[in-house]
Amino acid sequence: MGKFKVLVANSTIPDIAHNILKTECDVKVCEEGRESILQNIEGVDAMFWLSHYKLDKELLDKAGPQLKVIGSMSAGYDNVDVEELKKRGIKFGNTPGVLNDSVADMAVLLCLAASRRYIEGRQAIEQSLWKPELNAQWLLARDICGSTVGIVGLGGIGLAVIHRLKCFNVAKFVYTGHKEKPEGKAVGAEFVSLDELLKTSDFVISCVPLNKETEKMFDAKAFSKMKSSAIFVNVSRGATVNQPDLIAALKEKRIFAAGLDVMTPEPLPPDHELLKLPNCFVTPHLGSASTNTRNKMAELAANNILNALKGQPMLTPVV
Ligand code: DGY
């Protein structure tokens, strides 16, 4: 019998996390649903968290005062009431870094699929619109080569995107954020204001975390500053975008196209307007969804929990 009680609040996490936790803990697993978590959380010392539900006061009250640590298997934690955790002295860790490569791969996929008009091309085949007569003006793309790429939020993911896109012979990388960063200089990216980035970029790639400042930052005003040939890509969180404004911009061709791995709501209903736009390429929040990355995230989250339970520093603490 292990010393600590841990609730794994998602039955789909990789085995590696169970194996790590089992070395020191009694592990109980429940389904991800809020009701199921509420039914199982009482009396646990730690929780392994992988959920889009809110981690809030109600869950923490139900857990009880012995709860010491929560390890989230995600980089983002906008659905977690971090202030409440701080107040209660509950430690909380996330899994940044290990998913940078996977998410950056997804950003490149979205840049390519949106700029090469993947949806329109596929639909043209399915609807017999691909004609035998060659049309030199048909489904022309916007090149990444020679373009200006703007990264909004130059963290690990943004940097990994730059490293990849360098191979595409991008003319210029710009980025924006709170301050100029030495890492930006190291990869040859220029620090600019958000306004400047929106006005000059051919590809605008959102890699910002979701918080009060970034919520709905991509709105009608932002889209109106972008070039009509611009491509907007989002691998951060759907709520950084005012989605009706994005849909209007795409419909009215005020921007060329969008590639979205994140949107609101998630899951996106199958009849959602975003899916009807030929210039919008959508994937179902798969940024970190590779076997290796999910294993690394699970391992890190489990080790964060064990460390905290044993009184050692977490590897990647938030609080
Ligand atoms: C994260 O970890 O925040 C990614 O969005 C994957 O869910």
Automatic annotation (TrEMBL):
Domain D-isomer specific 2-hydroxyacid dehydrogenase NAD-binding: 110-287
Keyword Acetylation among UniProt keywords: no
Record's GO cellular component terms: cytosol
Domain D-isomer specific 2-hydroxyacid dehydrogenase catalytic: 7-318
Highest taxon listed in the record's lineage: Eukaryota
Pfam family, any one: 2-Hacid_dh_C
GO MF annotation terms: glyoxylate reductase (NADPH) activity; hydroxypyruvate reductase (NADH) activity; NAD binding
Keyword terms of this UniProt record: Oxidoreductase
Record field: transmembrane: none
Family membership: Belongs to the D-isomer specific 2-hydroxyacid dehydrogenase family.
Protein name in UniProt: Glyoxylate reductase/hydroxypyruvate reductase
